[in-house]
Every structure is written in C-alpha cells, then in structure tokens.
C-alpha cells in the first residue's frame, strides 16, 4: 500500500509541478489519496506539543509508528539499540567545537513512546514534489541541481558505514530552492540505486521556513516508487526519545566566527543489517534492512553538498556561501572523515585515493586537504555563492 501511494504521489508531483513554483489544482480523488496517506503516517498520539518554530510533535507508541505499516515490515522485530554500540566506540568522534542544541531536548515523551513531527497536507505535497525532482543520487547531477562530493568506491568488500563532522550554516535560499550538506551510503546503478543521505538542509518548500534542519533521504529504487525525506513515508524507525529527524538546529556557524558542528554517522549493524543514524553520539533510529533491494553493503560512500532550484536564472548558495580557501571559519567543512569496512572497524582514507567532483566550478568548489592536523584529521571544504550556474 505504501509503495502504491508513493507511486501515485510521484505521478501527482510530475503532473502538478511548475518551474515558477505555481501549481494546478488537485482533484477530489487526489485529495482523498492525500488524506489516506496522512492517516497512514500521522498516528494517534498519547501526547503532543508545539515547538517554538510552530511544529507539532506527537508522542507515538514506539511499536505503532508509521514504519510498521510498510508491507515489508509487518513482522519486523524492533531493535532498541545497535549491537555495535560497545564494540565500535572509537567509530564516533565527540564534538570538540561548539555544542549544538536541539529543540526537543526541553520536551519528553512517556516511556515507550517516541517523538515524531506531525505531517500536514502542505508538508506532504511539497516534500513529494521536491523529492521527485531532486534525484539526490550520490554522484549525479541533473538540470537545476548542482553537486560537489568526495566519494570512496574502491573497496571490493564494500562499506558498512560513513562518518563525519559537518559545521552548520544557514545559506539564504528562496522558496523553491534547497541547499544541503550531507554524508551518504549508496549501492546500485541507474534505476536500481539504493541510498541513504543524512545531514542538514535548508528548504523553505519542505519546512515552511528558511531554518536549517537535520534531514534524511532514502530510496530503494532511484525514487521511482520508494523513498522520501524524513518520516513522510513509512520506513525509518525512531528510537531516540528526545531527538527526531526534521527539526531545526538552533546554533549556527558564522563566517570568521564561532563554528557549530554536528557529528553524523550512517552505520550498518553487522548482525541485523539495519542501517542506523547517529547524531551527536545519539542513536536516533534506523532503516530496516528489509526496506532495501540492494544495500546489504554499500559500494560507495561520500561527503559533500548539493543545491537545487533555479530562480530567475540564479542557483542558491551552498554551505556558508563562500568558496573553500583552507580557513575552516570561512567555508563549510567536513572533518574527521572516516568509514566503516566489512569487519566492522573504522578506517580513514590514508591510502585509498578518493574521487573529487563538482559540476560547476564557477559557482561551487571542493578542496580535500587529506590529513589536516591531529584535531581535524582528514578534512574537506566545500561550497560557494551560487549564481548563474549553467551545466
């Protein structure tokens, strides 16, 4: 049922989307499908609260959250914590710059319940249009989308995770634009791409504001019929009782000023094969292995940035809006880059040579410094002002 609805909505987005941001009215049948999908993902809460930014967050029974309505997860056994928690302590680096605050740390759900941001009709329509046209594959760009990335894809036994610290900015984008900083795992090619992307995102169309939000994006078939941002379709299983995907980050870095960063990991549990999201050493939740058609391991991992949306001939800024120049207070960085290999150990790109790529050097750049120093270790910088960026 979930996949059928997603296919319907992707068709709706293709029929309803306009480059200038205007849309055509939707039919009564489409309205009914939207209501059914909202009922699928918005479960009855035991408690709700509203954040300062106006979002409603519901406390949902951990065993009755939307993921368990996915047809592949009907008999899924909940995993409370990853088995690598004790064995892989060295894999997750602790924050040494300014500490980030998350808005939900002042709220709490009762034991046995998890916080999930409530999805509105507008949220759903805007997210589906954005996902349908963004095609956020790790190593690809499309008209109106620009990517800079460092990619590792030269291990015969594949990858089981990716780690990095990303400093957080709030690039100025317009309503129908988006700017992202991310880490990623991916497997497959063409229409069979399975991927998970995790990072921060500014997208007024998705979030109804210009704030920076923690996001995740996934698909098991190149977004043909599966996948979405955050929890707008059944898939991701929330575990952490205080932090939930899709909410804004309070503290932001400033050019030549204080730098606030978030430590992120996408890491596979070697026993269950589930893919866990870790932020600030908090095990937020996971994507069950059953969701994916081809992600038993990843054939590539990556770090970088992406933007989408051309408004009046201008593409949005990426990162801090400045080109990388070696000064970590100027452009967006990802430091302490590492990845998890097949035996569960964490490695750094000491000997392997990463691939560096960017499609518009006049608008965006990426510099990889290798081993920068003992504090930052393997580090890259990326970003740029955007502007007139023809592919």
Question: Care to describe what's here?
Answer:
The strands form 3 sheets. Strands 5, 10, 11, 12, 13, 15, 16, 18 and 19 form a 9-stranded antiparallel sheet that branches. Strands 9-8-7-6-14-4-17 form a 7-stranded antiparallel sheet. Residues 1-24 and 87-99 have low confidence and may be disordered. Strand 11 and strand 12 form a beta hairpin. The protein has helices at 2-16, 28-41, 84-87, 121-134, 204-207; strands at 47-50, 56-61, 113-117, 145-152, 161-167, 178-187, 194-202, 213-219, 228-229, 237-238, 261-268, 275-279, 282-287, 300-308, 332-340, 346-347, 355-358, 365-371, 378-383. The radius of gyration is 19 Å and the shape is globular. Helix content is 13%, strand content 30%. The protein is built from 5 helices and 19 strands. It has one domain (2-383). InterPro entries: Glutamic_endopeptidase, Neprosin, Neprosin_propep.
- Distance between the first and last residues' Cα: 38 Å
Query: How large is the radius of gyration?
Result: 19 Å
Query: Could you tell me the mean pLDDT?
Result: 84
Note the run of SSEs as H and E. HHEEHEHEEEEHEEEEEEEEEEEE
Largest sheet: 9 strands, antiparallel
Structural class: alpha+beta
Question: Tell me, what's the shape?
Answer: globular
Keywords: Signal
InterPro entries: Glutamic_endopeptidase (IPR053168), Neprosin (IPR004314), Neprosin_propep (IPR025521)
Signal peptide: 1-21
Domain Neprosin PEP catalytic: 141-390
